[in-house]
Amino acid sequence: MPGAEKPLAIGAAADEPLRLRIRVAVVAVFALLLAPARAEPLVVATTPDLRSIAEAVSEGRFRIESLVPPGADPEAFEPRPSHIGLVRDAALVVRVGLGHDEWLDRLLKQAANPRVQRGGAGYLDLSADVALVEVQGRSVEHRSGHAHGSANPHYWLDPANAEIISAHLAEALTRLAPQEGETIAAAQARFAADLKAGIARWTAALEPHQGAPIVAYHNTWPYFARRFRLNIVEVIEAKEGVPPSAARLTTVASRMREAKARVILHEPSQPMEASRFLAERTGARVVTLAPSVGAAPEAKDVLALFHHNVTLLAQALAEGR
Q: Of 54, 97, 225, 304, which is most buried with the most CB atoms under 10 A?
């Protein structure tokens, strides 16, 4: 009957707006799924130490990458082809400077990213912002080792300098993303407070050993020694990156006996033969410290790096008395 079909027609018409809304919702969901994710600004640091500090102040708002992997020697590092792409896409490149990451200059040219070239808005050399030691530096021929630049480059090993680095990184990140300024400032303040508390603990741990004579294999530790008032009486390498000769070892052993040095600072990537030889000749003990984040499993970030090194060194100095 004609009257029996009318309710069906009315029901179909009533369902049509619902079907339309469902189709619109489905299309919107697929559009969101297929849309490219919002890219975080890419920050490329030359070393794991600078990456660690950048991560501490960025609160996850940036993608932070390190060119040098944990445990590798930045002064002898050779970039890979994949690093060109990282630098090409970077909004900010952060370096140690002072010859420590000299290879970055070639990488910047190859990447041809005008923003991160020297003088560009995305180029940050942190050596300009700290008080340096050994300002004239020492030089070696290119084929006979690696040279420190115009000053000793290992300034991140003074925890007070880590606070300075964090402040300048926070400024640079805020310029990249002004909308994140408050978040970055709060994160940097927390990091600085953690460092301040850490410096108090680390200073107290090494205070009984102020002035203690120590020897280092590589000239890595003058900033660390200055902060904690230790006395580096000799560096085993006569030139950075060049193994010491027999005559050099004889000279260092004599100096160690004269100064009553009981600790030799070594690093995981360095050859052990010279340090072991001197330990056997003088009765000193070899202490392997981490020169950078990731160089030891315990040194997972900058704060852990200082805690690890201070703990090992304080123990060795106490036992060597």
A: 54
pLDDT in tens, 214-226: 999 999 999 999 9
Give per-residue pLDDT as tens, 146-181. Answer: 455 689 999 999 999 999 999 999 999 999 999 999
What is the distance between the alpha carbons of residues 180 and 148, in angstroms, rounded to a whole number? 36
State both tokens at 181: 């300024």
Check if CATH label 3.40.50.1980 holds for domain 42-199.
yes
DSSP string covering 248-308, please?
HHHHHHHHHHHHT--EEEE-TTS-SHHHHHHHHHH--EEEE--SSTTSSTT--SHHHHHHH
Neighbours of 179 (CB within 10 A): 8
Query: Which distant-in-sequence residues (6+ apart) come within 8 Å of 116 by Cβ?
Result: 44, 87, 90, 91, 92, 93, 108, 122, 123
- 206-319 CATH, one of 2.60.40.2250, 3.20.20.70, 3.40.50.1980, 3.40.50.300: 3.40.50.1980
pTM of structure: 0.84
Give CATH 3.40.50.1980 domain extents, the chain: 42-199, 206-319
